[in-house]
Write a structure and sequence with these properties.
This protein is an alpha/beta fold. The protein is built from 4 helices and 6 strands.
């Protein structure tokens, strides 16, 4: 998968890897809005590498594109795409010799990392889920959509090791991924 990395770890150090994963970007266009957040996060911290990862089928405004399909930007966090994201995070963890991984996802990206964390115990050591459609069947029903093939993070939470910090943030006025989801 394509990504942009920010920050640097001193030679021989074991940095924290912060992985930022974008939402569905349903309106179309590049999915690189997490680049600015990753850059800002890395700039304010030592021994941190922040990566903005493009989910399968998505692209940025400078021509980088991740292999795979964005499925028309609907129902994108299904098992195949989630495995691809898990594989990318695992490879990045090795590439940067990271001592731990913190994943920050927005909307569909939050759904993705929620499932990845539960399916790959210990890969992600902390999660921030912003506007997460964490209960996909309830989310689809609330939007008048038929069930799709997206995996639901609530079905995988038991696979996340106890003690793993998970922060879920949803704005009170969010009418897409209401707090109860």
């Amino acid at each position: 998968l394509a990504y942009e990395a920010f920050g640097a770890a001193p030679g021989g150090s074991r940095p924290v890897l912060a992985v930022f994963v974008h939402g569905d970007v349903s309106a179309g266009g590049p999915a690189d809005y997490m680049y600015a957040y990753a850059r800002q996060f890395a700039a304010g911290r030592k021994n941190v590498v922040a990566v903005a990862l493009l989910r399968p089928g998505y692209y940025d405004r400078i021509g980088h594109r991740s292999d795979g399909s964005d499925n028309g930007r609907r129902d994108t966090f299904h098992s195949g795409n989630n495995r691809a994201v898990a594989g990318a995070i695992s490879e990045l963890k090795q590439r940067y010799n990271a001592r731990s991984v913190v994943a920050l996802g927005h909307s569909g990206g939050a759904g993705t990392i929620g499932v990845v964390a539960g399916n790959n115990p210990g890969l992600i050591n902390g999660l921030v889920l912003v506007s997460c459609p964490c209960d996909v069947p309830a989310w689809n029903a609330s939007r008048g959509r038929r069930p799709g093939s997206a995996q639901s993070p609530v079905d995988y939470v038991s696979g996340i090791p106890g003690g793993t910090p998970i922060v879920a943030v949803t704005g009170q006025a969010d009418d897409n991924t209401r707090p109860e989801l």
